[in-house]
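Q: Sequence in, structure out?
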Amino acid sequence: MEKNYDHKLYEEKLYKAWEDSGVFTPKVDKTKKPFTIIMPPPNANDPLHVGHAMFVTIEDILIRYHRMLEDSTLWLPGTDHAGIETQFVFEKKLAKEGKSRFDFDRETLYSMIAEYVNDNSGVSVKQMKRLGASADWSRFKFTLDKEIVDKATDTFIKLYEDGLVYKGVRLVNYCTKCGTGYSELEVEHEEREDKLYYINYGPLTVATTRPETMLGDVAVAVNPKDARYKKLIGQEIDLPLTNRKIKIIADELVDQEYGTGAVKVTPSHDNADWEMAERQGWDVMKMAKEHQIIGQNGKMTEFAGKYAGLSVAVARENVLADLGDTLVETKPLVHNVGTCYRCHRVIEPLPMSQFFIKVRGMADRAIEALDKGEVKIHGTGRDKILRQWLVNLKDWNVSRQIVWGIRIPVWYPVIDNGELKIDNFKVSKTSPGEGWVQESDTFDTWFSSGQWPVITLETNQPGDFEYFYPTSVMETAYDILPFWVMRMLMLGIYMTGKVPFKEVYFHGLVRDEKGQKMSKSKGNVINPIDLADKYGADALRMALVMSTTAGQDSSTGESKVRGMRNFANKIWNAGRYVRQGVGDVSTASGLSARSQQGSEDQMVGKRLGEIVVEVTRMLEELKVGLAAETVHNEFWHWFCDELIEKNKTGEVSGEVLKETLETFLKLLHPFVPFVTEAVWTGKEMLIAQAWPESL
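A: Exactly. Output:
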């Protein structure tokens, strides 16, 4: 053996040997309980970031451990088309070429994006393999595979037939730059410095952060208990800058302490105002049609009068200028603003006709599953957060105004003048016949990925779904709890009557060495593949997972990875010492022979047995970070610092040292698979060995 471990000489070669051996493919034994993880599908088009490296590491540790337990172990991989994100990236590419998505028809744009994704689709898979992911690649799935699309579409049709889908005009969180609506879950709320404008509406003054939307006001609201305004309720007043009259109304939800206690009511551009209009019993649809003053292009509509065609920002400045003395006062304000999670532009609530899924029943069944213990959540406080989302969940807007995704299976008849009769639609996978046109919107990406555990198994090898579902563990980052985990739970129960997974492990965000969130603007983003190339995949894996706790953020940087390279060298040098002094690893006669050896050897066996029990218990309880820390410390400080030194003085026999190293290599293998496999010298690979038994 060379003096130092060089990962570049071993990692690619060992991974190929593992893959070629077929060990990644589970041996289905229906007398055994399976262990299944469905991989959170990364974006098919993007390279892995450090968060992906974290999930690969944790899931691979669990998979290798259960494989060594000789369970029927399946890690089913896949990638996601990532609708909005991928189209957003592609549109940026077009912009650099001086082009826009509006330069192409739907079919052409879809084909262009598909070609772009296809050209880059192997990147993430190659990088997952680079990190040692022992997934069953023969079962790989992509969210736009035909059979996946068909299954996802069937679910929507079933939801519709069960009365859980409707088309309605609602206020939709719309990004005028990305050109699509979002669900409530996808809106990011950022704290921003803004202004609160006090505008004279005649007998009272209104406080607002959005003076430009006053052009769409339908009323002014006050709290009925507010003594200042009781006599004004029911009066008509002139709406500034318009020739319209609006009423002063009472609503109990108006906050008397905010601003002046009088608020403008603009149902077409504010969610709270929309709900207020519904409480008042008004015709909200009519209002939305007649008083929408901001369009989907981000510009003022014809209803904005002389401000029509202006951007929102310019219209605001012009409105403020035109108000003159009617603008009574301006105060600084710090508040939360809804923004697009992709481009961070301020979200515009706009009235739109969309398809919604009724979620209340599904959410209640998910809560029931949590109450019954059918799903166990790992991650401090995440169980409560999941419950809060489920309790307060609103109907799910699944319509997205993009081309890259699964098209909603709805068809409209074409009437005489060539227009579509959008109120007379049919839901079908295929066209109802000549003269019918398909809906242009696609599904929210999370609609198909919310079905992922079910449809990946249903569309795979015969018997997979019946044997491997429900899956064992869903492991993912806590920040997509409401986007993905909650929806998988709801849809999985709806589709199968069973929870899609028995346990959920939420890992935290990976921060830099100072504990700061990684961002390109800070320049503290680490590239996991670069670090794996420089220090080895084992070093990166151990640095990521060491001492981590479910649901809590952790810190990782180059110095930590460098330190774990030293650990890999420690394993290598220990193996080198034992091999040179005792013989090949994995050829020992067995720990049962210790009864004939000295008392020190027997004590070694007892201590090693305790370590096996402890690491096994931690992995069973999904305390992955603690298990990594334990086996790291015991190997470094006990085996290397104590036992090897005692072997040099004759206190511990070479045979026992070799047997102990063999056991440690098995315990370490799930965490640092490459270096342990390189040190192992048995006829069969270490990856295929049985987990050590408790002694």
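The chain has a mean pLDDT of 92.
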